[in-house]
Amino acid sequence: MWLLFAILTTVIWGLAELFYKKGARPDEKYSHLKITVTVGFVMGIHAIIMLLTQDMGYRPYHLVQYLPVSLCYILSMAFSFFGMRFIEESISDPIENTSGAICALMAVVLLGETIAPPVVVGIVIIVIGILGVGFLENTGSTDRKKKIGKKMAVIAFAMPFCYAIIDALGSFLDIIYLEMETTPLTEITEETIENVANTSYELTFFFVAVILLIFMKIKGVHYELPRQRDKILAALCETAGQFTYVFAMSGNGAIAAPIISSVCVVSMLLSRIFLKEKLTFRQYFFLFLVIAGILLIAIIEGD
Fold first, then answer.
1. Which whole-number Å values give the CA distances from 145 to 84, 138, 156, 237, 276, in the listed order?
2. Sign of CA dihedral 98, 102, 103, 107
3. How far is the CA of 281 from the CAs of 91, 136, 168, in angstroms?
4. Which of 190, 169, 168 is closest to 181 using CA atoms?
5. pLDDT tens digits for range 187-237
6. Residue 152 — pLDDT band, cuts 50, 70, 90?
7. How many CA atoms lie within 13 A of 81 on its CB side?
8. Which of 232, 289, 301, 202 is nearest to 260 (CA)?
9. CA 128 centroid distance within chain
10. What is the pLDDT of residue 199?
11. What element of type H or E holds 96?
12. In this predicted structure, which of 58-67, 84-93, 249-258 has the lowest mean pLDDT?
């Protein structure tokens, strides 16, 4: 069943990326915070529903125990939301989804897992693709610097990389947290571990959303949840994907993570169709190298 959940997560999160991009407007200074707040509130509602309907033996200290994983995911998403304001989804998403390859490397280095030669080839292909995209970004192949300035262009382009690294750390920690033999979570069972972990993450996201909402109120930022249609749709897809994600990671996390990283294929197709994003041939070439590397790792690790 973990493979089915991994595929569902990939498709659902691909839809989420589309709505995230539609809700991240470059001219809206705090749009990334508004997206974070919206996602946090939707996840909070789902967490409350789970607590009321599921007998998972949830305890408040579970939130603290799972906090390192939750903060990694929330922080990485905040970086992603900021970058979406200025970077095409077709560019940012493949870079962000190299987190699966980074997670695999971390599992090799820190957990002593073996890595097959074809996986090494996949990682090399990903690196070449990213270097190619980075070269084009810094040689006048885009007019981003003219639109938003050199400093902001550099910061914006760094956001997908920040996401990839921090999200990879979260995925790596999930491999540990969602295995009964290694998890730091206490008073859980094989049947409840996924729900406990996911509920802890969603509650943490909700508390972060409350803090950010207070911050925006202090800053005088206008925010009305019912008017955030695209952000709400993104949040619903994000929450649904997160629910299926924990079941995928608990089944075989080291393999599920690279498979889920192929969400960039879904995202790129949707961005081309609905957002009308157009890149140069060279940009597409290097981005497809990144995607090819990700898919190669997913296929090899799935055997």
1. 15, 9, 10, 32, 21
2. positive
3. 13, 11, 29
4. 190
5. 999 999 989 999 999 999 999 999 999 999 999 998 887 678 888 999 899
6. confident
7. 26
8. 301
9. 22
10. 95
11. helix 89-96
12. 249-258
**Cα-based torsion angle of the residue sequence 174, 83, 213, 199 in order, rounded to the nearest 10 degrees:** -20
Location of structure tokens 């690196």? 127
- In this prediction, residue 213 carries a pLDDT of 94
What is the token pair recorded at 197?
């972990």
Burial 79-95 (b: 16+ CB within 10 A, else e): bbbbbbbbbbbbbbbbb
Q: Give the number of residues written for the chain.
A: 303
Among residues 277, 289, 280, the alpha carbon closest in space to that of 140 is found at 280
CA distance 264 to 96: 8
Find the Cα–Cα–Cα–Cα dihedral 63, 68, 71, 75, rounded to 10°: -170
Closest residue by Cα to residue 230 from 3, 22, 7, 11: 22
Query: What average pLDDT does the segment 232-261 reach?
Result: 79
Q: Note if the pTM is more than 0.85.
A: no
Burial of 164 from C-beta contacts in 10 A (0-12 / 13-18 / 19+)? buried
Tens digit of each residue's pLDDT (9 = 90 or more) over 65-112: 999 999 999 999 999 999 988 888 888 888 887 887 888 889 888 888
Backbone angles phi, psi at 277, to 5 degrees: -70, 130
Q: Which amino acid, 205?
A: F
Query: What is the DSSP annotation of 272-299?
Result: HHHS-----HHHHHHHHHHHHHHHHHHH
**Residue with tokens 């009308």, as numbered in its chain:** 276
**Amino acid found at 275:** L
Q: Which residues contact 55 (CB under 8 A, 6 or more apart)?
A: none
